[in-house]
Write a structure and sequence with these properties.
Length: 497
Amino acid sequence: MSSRNDAAIWSGLFTISAESGQTLQAQIRQAIVAAILDRQIAASMPLPSCRILAEKLGVARGTVVLAFQQLVDQGFLIARERRGHFVNPEVLAMPARGPHKHADNQDGVDWKARRKITPSELPKPSKQNNWIKSSYPFVYGQFDPALFPTAEWRECNRMALAVLEIRNWAADMVDQDDPALIEQIQARLLPRRGIFANPDEIIITLGAQNALYMLATLLMSKGTRVAMENPGYPDARSVFRLAGAEIVPVPVDKDGLKVGQIPADCGFVFTTPSHHCPTMVSLSPERRAQLLADATRNNQIIIEDGYDSQLVDEAPQQALKSIDRSGRVVYVGSMSKTLAPGLRLGYIVASADLISELRALRRFMLRHPPANNQRAVALFLSLGHHEALVRKLSGAFSERRKRLVQAVSAFLPEWKSSPATGGTSLWLEGPAGVNASALAEMAAARSVLIESGERFFDGPSRPTNFLRLGFSSIALQHIEPGIRELATAAGRRPAAA
């Protein structure tokens, strides 16, 4: 029998990290469960005593005792009096995990010939996995851990895990949503945008992108013409193309989408009127009225993405949906920019008959978004946490925007920013001939993360001298030093402060 003090064996099994999001006790349990299920511990091998393992890991003995006790309760370990803890042989009777299978294409299937669409050939998102470790993350769509309402979110999740709450959300709701969340969206989110809707006019989605995919699947097919802002939201463009739609690019200026250039034969218009993606300009009141009038005359459907619209602006505008009297506007909203992008929770507001069909379609995709998340968000809204968070974020982001504009003006004066206010990013146009993608690579080497603007344009010849600077995840005091570093990467000698 192996000794329970065999350091070589146990050193390889236990890796405890203070940076892990799990408690020490949970990490110990995870290590033991993995070792058992992977057949690294035999049934005849005793585990180290609680005292020895605690000393080895540098943790309190009580932490190990609790971990062992829970594993006994779960049936992974057996406690034998005066002999210690052993693996339960019944657990080892289950099939072990098989060896890693290497991709060798020996199945002989030509998947390229069989697929009907090629999503991998569409423009890829700007994904920077290491953004949180960067010194100057000017990335869009990420959150600031310092501003995240950790205590409030934990409170709502604890409440959602109460016995009576679990009984409410744990059952299969088939194609329905949590009525508590629908009520809160109806009462707390939509009125901020001037929208008033009945419960049967709202459906929950896995974020705004999922909402667009559902709409494209239901309403678009080969030959459908969709007018879109250019530059515009690239993933929306790709989603519509996957459905077979033809994208008709329409230019944007300081007043937003040039509505007068939308062809009358387009069946759909996709727009981000409150904060245009990516310039952040707002669609002027005159163009909003013209867009609705033209849509009625040409029998067009308008898909309005409430992009970055939950925050409080210096000059707020209500949603296009709020002045729609014909039911032609389909509104898409999201909680990503205020609560957290990883939550993946959004919604669609539209006529009841369209929502009914979207529910029927969604059932074949995912039935409904996770009900526990729906209930937690409903509680977050009902307790006023979201309202308080919006005020906090709006103040912080307004200050960051001002600091960023000042820094760009001081250290990158040849770069021109868009005349927009509000939102969580700044759109910049550089001198002719500048390659923003190359600049992004040079900046990343100095721990400055920026996003080239080329992907936002449609067509074969896309300008390369635009970039987007997000400021939702960068601390206020890091903005000016970050822009200094960016100026250095751009080949400009920073001026004295």
